[in-house]
Each structure stands twice: as C-alpha cells, then as structure tokens.
Amino acid sequence: MPPKKKGGKGKGGSGNIIDGVDTTQMTREQLEVFCHRIKEENEREREERNFFQLERDKLRTFWEITKNELEEAKAKLRNKDRQIEEAAEKNDEELKFYKQKVKHLQYEHQNNLTECKAEALVSLKMSQDDHTEQERELLRDKRDLKAQIREQEVAHQDQIKSLKLQHSEEISNIRNQFELKEKELENKYEKKFADLKQELNIKHTMEMSELEERKNNQITDLTKHHEKVFNEMKNYYNDITLNNLALISSLKDQMEVLRKQNERMSKQVADITAENKRLTEPLKQAQIDVAEYKRQLEHYEKDKLSLANTKAKLSTTKQELDDLRWANDALQLRFEKLEAEKDELSRRFIDAILDVQQKTGQKNMLLQRRVQTLTNVAEYRDVIIGELRALTSEDITAKNLKLEKVLARKNTVIHDLQYELARVCKAHDDLLDTYEDKLQQYGIPKEELGFVPLRILQDGQGGLPKGPAGLVTKNR
Q1: Could you give the angle at which helices 300-391 and 396-441 cross, rounded to 10 degrees?
Q2: Contacts for 180 with CB less than 8 Å, ≥ 6 apart
C-alpha cells in the first residue's frame, strides 16, 4: 500500500504565498528545502493517483465478472424452475396413476378379505368341534387319573403308618440304649467326683494343720517380742512420766478444746455444700493425728514438734473453714435471692400464661367461629350464585362482577381474621419461648413449674416464621 495522503494541503492564493506559506522572507536554502518538500509531495500524490486508478480498474473488472456470474446464475435458476415445473407435472401424473392402482388393490384386498373370513369361519367351526372332542377325552383322562391318585393315596397312607410304627420302635430302642449309657456315665463320674472330693479334703486338712502350726509358732514369737518391747516401753515411759505430767495435763486441756472444736466443726461441715467436702480430709487427718498422739506419747521433743505441726494445721484448717463459712453464707444469701426471684418469676409467668391463655382462647374461639360462619356464608352464597347462574341468562356479566366484588370483600375479611388469629398465636408462642429461655438462663428446669405450658398452633399455621409476632405478614 502507498503512504496515506496528508489532508488539508492545497495550493492557495496568489503572489508569493505557496501552500499557505509566505516565501518572500525565505532564504535560498529554505526555498530549496521547501521546493524539495513540495516535489516529494507531488511525487507522492502522483503515486497515490496511479494506485487509485489501478484499484478502480480492479473493481470495475470484478464488477463485470460478478455481473456475468449473476446472469449465469439467473439462467441456471430459470432452468431449475422449468425442471421443477416439469417434475411437478410428472409427479401429478404418477400420483394419479398410483391412486388408481391403490383403488384396484383395495378392491382386490376386500375380495381376499371376504374369502379369508369365510375360510376362517369354516376352519373355526372345525377347530371348535375338534376342541370339544379333545375336551371330552381330557375329562375322561382326568377322571381316570383321579381314581389312580386316590388308590395311590390309600397305598401311601398304609405305607406311612407302617413307617411310623417302625420309626417309633427304633426311637424307643435308641432311647433305652442312651438311658443305660447315661446311667453308667453318671455312676462313673459320681464315683470319680467322690474320690476327688475325698482326696482334696485330705489335702486341705493337711495344709490347714501345717498353717495352724506355723500360725501358732508365729503368735508365740510375736507374743514374746511384744512383751519384751512393752516392758522396755513401760520402763521408758515410767522414767519420763514425772517430767511430762504438766505437759500431759496441758495437752489434755488442749485436746478437750480440740475435741469440742472438732465436734462443732463436724456439725458445720455436715451442713455446707459439696464445695466444702474436699476440706474434710485435713480435719479427719488432724483428728486421727490427735487420737494417735493421745494413744502414743513419744518423747518430749517429738511430741512438741508434732503438736506444733498440729497447731499449724489446725490454724490453717480454721482459716479455711472461716473462709468457706463466709463463702457459704454469701452463697446462701444469693441462693435465697435467686429462689425469691424464681418464685416471683414463676408467679408472674403463671399469671401471665393464664391471662394470655384465657384471652387468646376466648379470642381464638371467637375468631374460629367467625371464620367458620363466614366460610359457611361464602359456601351458601356460592350455592345461590350457582343456582342463579343456572336460572338466569340476562345481565350475567354485571351480576358476576357484583358477586365477585362481594366475594372478594368477604375473602378479604376472612384473610384479615386469619392473620389476626395467626398473630395472636405467634405472640403467645413467643412469650412461652422467652420464658423458657429465661428459665434456662437461671438454671431452673422446666419440670419444676408443676404444669405444661399450652402451645397454640392453629390449623394452617404450621409454617409460621420464628421471628417476632409483629413480623407475621399478610398473604393476600
């Protein structure tokens, strides 16, 4: 493709203005450059003119060729139309010929069908006769077979009786044989059991005598050792008794105080909740330690150290017991407060439920009766409309429009009443759900109410949403 032609360049004006440029003030070099540029543009214009002439010649050639092809296509189309008309005429002639041929074939088919029917009736009659004869023969064969079957049944019954007798004799013989074998095995194993029992009794007696002898020897040794140790302990405690009398008296006073405190603590621990039960173990341990100290008095330093440990444990236990008693009192106050709140909520809820149930029940019954009445009226009017439509034939369109308006108004009233009923039922159920959530929030089981709340779910309202009662929408 040649380069595109620049637009907006025309040679204009007179004098020294060439192509919109004033050449009067140009130097020689500028004029040469300007002339060279104009010459290049002239050459480019000439090349573009030659290119467009060639394109024009090509387009003219293509147009002539396409025109010739169009004329040839039209000639072929005319030939095809002529051929289609000739084929249609030929087809009509062939169609007439085949219609005539079909008429002849139908006539021949009718004749053949009549002959076939006559032949079929004759063959049917003959077949019926043959079938009747075969049926008679089959009935005779059937009677003969029944007689043979009865004879065979009698023979089989006799054979079954004989087999039953033989079978019962064989069973009785086998039963007698098994009873004899059972008695032999029973006697054999009873004898073995008696021998084994006697042998085990002898073995047990010997082992018990050996154990008794070892036990007596050990008891004798332990008795001697304990007497020796007791004498040593007695001598030791006799030596330190005078030195520990003051200590023992003070310990007795302290033990009495501890015993009283322990009794009081036992009574209080029995009344506290499950949270305080884990602290009874240190108290029991302290009681066991005190009893053990009272029963066994060791030397002074050991007793003093044990007593100090016991006092420390006892003070710790007292502190924990005081803390637990304070926590128990706080929990008791909170429990009483929650119990009062629960009773108040229960009373208010029962009153509200009874009030709502009474109001909704009465309103529900009124709405249901009104809906039923309106439904009956609508059905009755439908019947009247049907009768009037059947009786009259004038002004049907006007009457239908009037009746449709009345029915639409009544249907609107029915829908409004149904919506009001659904809204009241939904409000009642939402109130029950809110109360159950509050019971669950405060940890109160539903069984403590003493009654089962009544949920109102009207017919046709099974698809109500789970939103607030005010969101029940009308479905017109």
Answers
A1: 170
A2: none
Q: How far apart are CA 398 and CA 125, in angstroms?
A: 71
Q: How many Cβ atoms sit within 10 Å of the Cβ of residue 438?
A: 12
- Specify whether the CB–CB gap between 51 and 2 falls below 8 A: yes
Rounded CA separation 188/191 (Å): 5
Residue 154's H or E segment, with its range, is helix 28-241
The upper half-sphere exposure of residue 389, i.e. CA atoms within 13 Å in the direction of its Cβ, equals 12
Instruction: Mean pLDDT check: name the lowest of 48-57, 142-151, 214-223, 340-349.
Output: 340-349
Contact 472, 422 (CB under 8 A): yes
* Average pLDDT in the chain: 77
Segment 58-117, tens digit of pLDDT:
888 989 999 899 999 989 998 988 888 898 888 888 888 888 888 888 888 888 888 888
Could you give the angle at the alpha carbon of 447 between the alpha carbons of 442 and 453, nearest 5°? 95
pLDDT higher at 435 or 61: 61
How far is the CA of 96 from the CAs of 83, 87, 101, 103, 212, in angstroms?
Answer: 20, 14, 9, 11, 137
State the Cα–Cα distance between residues 123 and 117, nearest whole angstrom.
Answer: 10
Please report the DSSP string for 192-246 in residue order. Answer: HHHHHHHHHHHHHHHHHHHHHHHHHHHHHHHHHHHHHHHHHHHHHHHHHHTTTHH
Each residue's pLDDT tens digit, 313-365: 888 888 888 888 888 888 888 888 888 877 787 787 777 777 777 777 777 77
The tokens for 135 are 């049926």
